[in-house]
Write a structure and sequence with these properties.
Length: 453
């Protein structure tokens, strides 16, 4: 077992091309089955077939920037190392907080004891990087195929290294998953580590889901304006600041793909607030309103705090997204952000939705989004990529939001595309970012117009 991408000078790191250049991380599953169900007000079709998605390792790209004393050690193959270096390479400005412990042939052939090898690699890593306080062992397809028990390895290493370093594990494998599930698995692995809230503690708000620091600061200011004093974020910026959780915790999800994390928090006694997600002026207002209602903030105060920033956001979206009104948009399933994005595109920019594909549809968490989208929208859960491509070609949308693997072929067919993964790498939540979000949709069309002869 060897370590790759520990330091920025490792070849390929920092200068690597974007993921589109490679098939790394893409999982393909083939079966065929179609069912239909009625959910809330929208009609949802379920498809099972070949999928084009990236794996959960991708989440490390934004998670390692968020938790400043955490380190992500992928236990995987050269393919995994290539994916993670390619995806994150363009964003490395300092020493990365991730690496891959590459399983060599002798590891896979059983000639070396994998647990001894892992202990050796982790010891070496921690000695080189004393800033690490929280180490995630991240499972991959290869480590799962050979049934390497990273959970037990993490417990063993944690016993040895605590209190200096806490070691946890989760899976980022691409088998039957999509790329945002990596964040869900990572945060869910943190939940058992959260300290218990005192039984008589005052109610507190826990915002779950990685947000850019600037966005987090904006939300903290808004919550303070509303008089909600006890607010914490998961993940925290530092491992030593794990928020307490218990029956007096109210959880507001900042991302729609955190089903496992939400379940784990509920098992610790926390209550989940359901709301639209904080994208655009409307989404942000309704998301804040859910917290305000739970904490008994009166309507006048809510209006005073939110009216002005909401109005500014609406005006900025109207300016940036003006050219998008009436344009057709088609979402392929990739990030699990598709429903809130479609709601924003339709209700705040006046776009016409052709289809919303989503890898999974969590009915409870997305109920407010489904209600805002209404009856007439076509939602497809899962994927049969060939059928979906046929529908997309027939619809000839003005903009297609899709994964990297589909973007180039669709561009070659004359369709304007937006990479859905960019919507995870870019801060898009909250009032101040609403215009940037509109800009992400507007740019591909503006570029096309500029290229027209
Ligand atoms: S975890 Fe699986 S899908 Fe992801 S890069 Fe590694 S081998 Fe590929």
């Amino acid at each position: 077992m060897t370590i790759a991408a520990l330091l920025p000078e490792i070849p390929g790191c920092g200068a690597a091309p974007r993921i589109a250049a490679s098939d790394a991380g893409r999982a393909t599953v083939t079966t065929a089955e179609v069912t239909t169900a009625k959910v809330t007000t929208a009609k949802v079709t379920t498809e099972r077939g070949q999928r084009e998605v990236f794996c959960g390792l991708t989440g490390i790209v934004w998670l390692h920037r968020k938790m400043q004393d955490a380190f992500f050690l992928v236990v995987g193959s050269r393919t995994c190392a290539h994916l993670i270096q390619s995806a994150a390479g363009v964003m490395i400005f300092a020493e990365p907080r991730f690496a891959t412990a590459i399983m060599e042939e002798r590891d896979l052939a059983g000639l070396a004891d994998m647990n001894d090898e892992l202990d050796r690699v982790v010891t070496q890593l921690v000695a080189r990087r004393p800033d690490i306080k929280l180490l995630f062992l991240v499972g991959s397809c290869p480590s799962e195929v050979i049934k390497l028990d990273l959970g037990r390895a993490a417990q063993r290493l944690s016993r040895r290294m605590m209190p200096d370093v806490r070691v946890l594990s989760y899976s980022g494998s691409g088998i039957e998953t999509t790329f945002t599930e990596g964040e869900d698995a990572c945060l869910a692995s943190l939940v058992p580590e959260l300290p218990a809230q005192a039984p008589d503690a005052a109610p507190s708000l826990l915002v779950a889901g990685a947000l850019a620091e600037a966005v987090e600061d904006q939300f903290s200011k808004l919550f303070a304006g509303l008089g909600i004093a006890r607010v914490a974020y998961l993940p925290p910026r530092r491992a030593c600041n794990l928020p307490a959780v218990g029956p007096n915790t109210r959880v507001l999800l900042a991302q729609p793909f955190l089903a496992g994390t939400a379940r784990a928090l509920q098992e610790r006694g926390a209550a989940l607030l359901t709301a639209p997600f904080p994208l655009g002026a409307e989404g942000t207002t309704e998301w804040l309103r859910a917290a305000a209602t739970a904490f008994g903030v009166n309507a006048d105060r809510f209006e005073t705090v939110t009216a002005l920033p909401a109005q500014r956001a609406r005006q900025a979206v109207a300016r940036t997204g003006a050219r998008l009104a009436g344009k057709k948009i088609f979402f392929f399933p990739d990030s699990q952000l598709e429903l809130p994005l479609a709601r924003f595109a339709a209700r705040e920019m006046g776009m016409q939705i052709e289809e919303i594909g989503t890898p999974y549809l969590h009915r409870q968490h997305l109920a407010p989004e489904l209600a805002l989208l209404g009856d007439d929208v076509r939602i497809v859960e899962g994927q049969d990529v060939d059928r979906q491509l046929d529908r997309c070609r027939a619809a000839r949308p003005d903009l297609t939001v899709c994964g990297l693997g589909l973007a180039n072929p669709l561009e070659a067919e004359g369709l304007a595309t937006k990479w859905s993964i960019e919507l995870l790498f870019t801060p898009i939540q909250g009032y101040e970012q609403a215009s940037d979000l509109a800009g992400l949709f507007a740019r591909p069309l503006a570029r096309r117009e500029l290229l027209k002869v």
